[in-house]
Amino acid sequence: MVGIEEQLKNPVWYSLKETHKKFAIEFNGVQFYNPEVCTFGAFFDETKTTKASNEYIKISDNFFFVSEDQTPIIDNTKVYLEKKIDGCQMVLNKLIDTLITENIVLLNETYIDEIYDLIWLVMPGYYKKRTFEMGKYYGIFKNGKLVSITGQRMQTNHFIEVSAVVTHPNYTRKGLAKQLIYYTTKEILKVNKTPILHTNKGNLAISLYEKLGYELTRDMNWWLYQKK
In the prediction, which pLDDT does 126 show? Predict the structure, then answer.
């Protein structure tokens, strides 16, 4: 079994080889998620990404390649690079205690539409309704309305990624996200896995993650391609 240090260098790849293998689609030795669930792809050999991306783009209008330090090679007649997101990976060192004052709810399938709508309100783009299947989601309600969530995304036998940290604009700066991240992190620790997360370099939320005990560990870049 590959250890966590190696897995964290290529988290999409190992998620698709382990916990999320039921979502895996392979083209030319390159791994992708089923596009109904997520549009992430991963590779070890960048010379294989041209043929693989040409195949995947037949079933998805866009996709991300996620890589620490390799640059995908693409066929510019089929796809084009919309943007490269300079990201970073954070790994929990030691969880720092945080007071929970809110009622945090484990969200089941009946909340999929509300989760989808909230994420698209705050971070419009690439979240799919079936992304919910990747892991557990937790939420905080106010006046019967879902106003803040966290979710789990990539995961293997060693780690689980905290993701979809979203709060409705009318409820920010109230500590909801901090409590949800703390709660979700504790739930990951309960199953003896390492909590990780990904964000953009320079994101103001990095200081919040650090206050909860997360540490910056490596670059993790996101190459977003669109079909021509």
Answer: 86
Number of CB atoms found within 10 A of residue 145's CB: 12
Tokens 């103001």 locate to 204
> What is the C-alpha separation between 116 and 171, in angstroms, rounded?
17
Asked whether 159 and 1 are in contact (CB, 8 A), the reply is no
Dump pLDDT digits (tens) for 20-79. 999 999 999 999 999 999 999 999 999 999 999 999 999 999 999 999 999 999 999 999
Q: Which two tokens stand for residue 23?
A: 């979502």
Identify the structural domains of the chain with CATH numbers, from first to last: 4-88+223-227 (3.40.630.30), 90-218 (3.40.630.30)
Residues 6+ away with beta carbon under 8 Å from 215: 90, 91, 92, 93
Which of 13, 8, 1 lies closest to 160 in space, CA to CA?
8
Encoded tokens for 183: 């709660």
Tens digit of each residue's pLDDT (9 = 90 or more) over 198-222: 999 999 999 999 999 999 999 999 9
Residue 139 and residue 149 in contact, taking contact as beta carbons nearer than 8 Å: yes
The number of helices, as runs of H, and strands, as runs of E, in the chain is: 6, 13
Which residue in 34, 77, 75, 35 sits closest to 53, CA to CA? 75
67, 219 contact by CB (below 8 A)? no
- Please name every residue paired with 138 in a beta bridge, in sequence order, or none if there are none: 106, 150
